[in-house]
Specification:
Growth Hormone, Chain: A; 7 helices; about 85% helix; cell membrane; membrane; MFS transporter; transmembrane; MFS
Length: about 200
């Protein structure tokens, strides 16, 4: 069990909040993209799955790069870099959806979405664990992952109805992208607030 006062630690609290916001964005986006590929672009299930491969492949590249970048710069700067790339890519995808830009532009932009996502998760995890003693690493990691799972569940629960109850799938997809961008922007603001206080 984590001691109650650990939640008063701003670094810990911001890290688990960012974890929840990230999964809200990530799993909500995956859900929305799968609908968009199949219903808007009329891709088959197989080709919709293949369309995700570059995106998910770059997640692994981001994971492997995160620790090296954190050692070269710092965890907080890696968070800034990852969040900036992520929000930029989401806004671009929103723009492409709004103005009916060809699908290949979205798929290309998803490479940056995947890479930045891969940067963020291990960095947020390390940031969370750095706030507690080694004896509490297991409990802190569990709290972080629980917050992420809650965020992911809420993301799918919110994005799903938006895709179905709006006037069109396209409009619902654009709203989903706007919400995903807002969640990353909130994380960026939290990061900025913490960084300013820290320094």
């Amino acid at each position: 069990m984590l001691p109650n006062d650990i939640f008063l630690n701003k670094t810990f609290f911001i890290s688990i909040l960012q974890g929840a916001l990230f999964n809200f964005m990530f799993y909500g986006l995956l859900f929305a993209l799968s609908f968009n590929f199949q219903l808007h672009y009329k891709l088959s299930s197989i080709f919709s799955g293949l369309a995700f491969l570059p995106f998910t492949g770059l997640v692994a590249v981001g994971n492997l790069s995160a620790s090296k970048l954190a050692m070269k710069f710092s965890r907080i700067h890696v968070l800034y870099i990852g969040q900036f790339i992520l929000i930029t890519s989401l806004i671009l995808i929103l723009f492409f959806a709004k103005f009916h830009i060809p699908l290949w532009c979205t798929l290309l932009t998803l490479l940056f979405t995947g890479f930045s996502s891969g940067l963020l998760v291990p960095t947020m995890t390390a940031q969370t664990l750095s706030t507690v003693s080694k004896e509490l690493h297991g409990a802190a990691s569990a709290a972080f992952n629980t917050s992420r799972q809650i965020g992911g569940a809420i993301g799918v629960a919110i994005f799903g109805p938006l895709l179905g109850v709006t006037a069109s799938l396209e409009k619902g997809f654009i709203i989903c992208l706007a919400l995903a961008s807002c969640s990353v922007f909130i994380s960026l603001l939290c990061n900025h607030f913490y960084f300013n206080k820290k320094n």
